[in-house]
Specification:
Elements lengths: L3 H22 L12 H10 L15 E5 L2 E4 L4 E4 L2 H4 L8 H11 L15 H15 L6 E6 L2 H16 L3 E6 L7 H6 L17 E5 L4 H8 L8 E6 L15 H12 L2 E5 L23 E4 L10 E6 L18 H36 L6 E7 L2 E6 L2 H13 L2 E2 L1 E3 L3 E4 L7 H21 L3
Parallel strand pairs: 3-13, 5-6, 5-7, 7-8, 8-9
Antiparallel strand pairs: 1-2, 2-3, 4-10, 9-10, 11-12, 12-15, 14-15
Helix pairs in contact: 4-10, 10-12, 11-12
């Protein structure tokens, strides 16, 4: 049992930590030693013999702590984070409301298994998600959810449900798409061949069409390789993520919807990266006015806690008890984080994503107009891609941004993505655009033949 003195010390430490987090969130980019510094290098060298070599290691960042949009490494360098743990820290790093919800729930119930038992939270989150879908897609009836630990698990669940509901086996995805790395979702993924190399045979009956070209499904697939009556689902990202932050033509999803309706095919939107406010709407598909039959969420749904959801129209959720489940998915602590996250998204972060995203995109478009290293700036909300002229330029710019205190990530063949926390301020957006533009200029000069 803690003494009164111990409680007082713990309270003082908690107050000090809170003040430190608040201070970090307000810090500008500060590079005190060339990254990676000695502590970062020591950590990376120490762990390398023990971790899987499949981990990517985009650049040698070793994080000590993070708050809001700012990240501090082990050597005291402070970075402006415009990748948010790969578009996952939606409410910012360690948001006080999310952290408090996690801490409170961890004192009450951490795990009991939502597949087999009941507890406050699981049904409440599913109800909350159903409300979000109903508001986004009016007059669509009820929605039900299966909670998962990740996006790839959500895609796997969607595959199973679509096959069960239609009694069909074939699936259609798109070149450039990314849906995960587990075997079923990997079968849909077609963004980079290295993800699939030496892992075959993959799931049979999966076909790939050209993203952004609705006619390609009929002209490339239905005419030559698969009858539409055998297709259970078309799985598509409303905006391609890993494939290059590619925004499709305005009528692309509409035409896929019409195609699915014509042949009794289910339309699945993979909103793992695009959902939960990332594009300035709760779901990216709202921009296109198209309603899916099934939708997969993850990443930003719980501000970095491992949680996802496979949502479907209620009439499709016909699979009986035991046909799908998960021991840990829908963990009470992750659910608490998700409920707090949704409060924050609805409380202004989705709107901030739209407003500051438009400002950041405009800043980048203006500052990079006519730039010899840049081909295009594109995106919606705080999901912005800058396509470089060559893969070498993209890699060099991303690495230079890291060394100068801006965290961005590459995607596609030669695109750099901006996917910051949704609470990014106007001043931080301006700073990000300035650092990025200067990096493009300096790399283009240094790499000039």
């Amino acid at each position: 049992m803690l003494s009164e003195g111990s409680v007082t010390v713990e309270a003082a430490e908690a107050d000090a930590n809170q003040l430190a987090r608040q201070a970090l969130a307000k810090q500008p980019i500060t590079i005190v030693t060339e990254p990676p510094g000695p502590l970062a290098r020591a950590l990376i060298d120490r762990e390398r013999p023990y971790v899987s070599p499949s981990l990517v290691d985009c650049y040698p960042l070793a994080v000590r702590r993070a708050s809001g949009c700012m990240v501090e490494d082990l050597d005291g360098n402070i970075y402006l984070d415009c990748e948010a743990g790969v578009a996952t820290a939606s409410t910012g790093h360690c948001h006080p409301a999310v952290a408090a919800a996690i801490a409170e729930q961890a004192q009450v119930l951490i795990h009991i298994c939502g597949t087999d038992f009941h507890y406050p939270g699981y049904g409440a989150l599913c109800e909350r998600l159903a409300g979000l879908a109903q508001r986004a897609f009016a007059n669509t009836g009820g929605w039900q959810s299966f909670l998962t630990n990740s996006g790839t698990e959500g895609v796997e669940a969607a595959i199973k449900l679509c096959r069960y509901a239609t009694r069909r086996s074939h699936l259609i995805a798109f070149r450039g798409g990314f849906h995960g790395r587990t075997l079923g979702s990997l079968s849909l993924t077609a963004s980079k061949s290295k993800y699939r190399k030496h892992f075959g045979p993959l799931l049979p009956g999966v076909h790939h069409a050209t993203y952004g070209v609705a006619d390609s499904v009929e002209k490339e697939l239905f005419a030559h390789t698969v009858a539409p009556e055998d297709v259970a689902a078309i799985v598509v990202e409303p905006i391609q993520g890993e494939g290059g932050y590619v925004v499709p033509p305005a009528d692309f999803l509409l035409r896929l919807r019409a195609l699915c309706d014509a042949y009794g095919i289910l339309l699945v939107f993979d909103e793992v990266q695009t959902g939960m406010g990332r594009t300035g709407r709760m779901f990216a598909s709202e921009h296109f006015g198209v309603v899916p039959d099934v939708m997969v969420l993850a990443k930003g749904i719980a501000s970095g806690m491992p949680l996802g959801a496979m949502m479907a129209k209620k009439e499709l959720m016909t699979w009986p008890a035991g046909t799908h489940g998960s021991t840990i998915a829908g963990n009470p602590v992750c659910i608490a984080a998700a409920m707090a996250t949704i409060d924050l998204l609805e409380g202004g972060l989705v709107e901030n994503s739209a407003r500051v995203g438009a400002l950041l995109k405009n800043e980048l478009s203006v500052s990079l107009a006519g730039h010899t290293a840049v081909e295009e700036v594109r995106g919606l909300g705080l999901m912005i891609g800058v396509e470089m002229r060559t893969p070498e330029l993209a890699d060099a710019v991303a690495q230079l941004c890291f060394r100068r205190g801006l965290l961005v990530l590459e995607c596609g063949k030669k695109t750099i993505r901006f996917a910051p926390p949704l609470l990014l301020s106007e001043a931080q957006a301006a700073a990000a655009a300035q650092v990025f533009t200067q990096a493009c200029t300096d790399v283009a000069r240094d790499l000039r033949p």
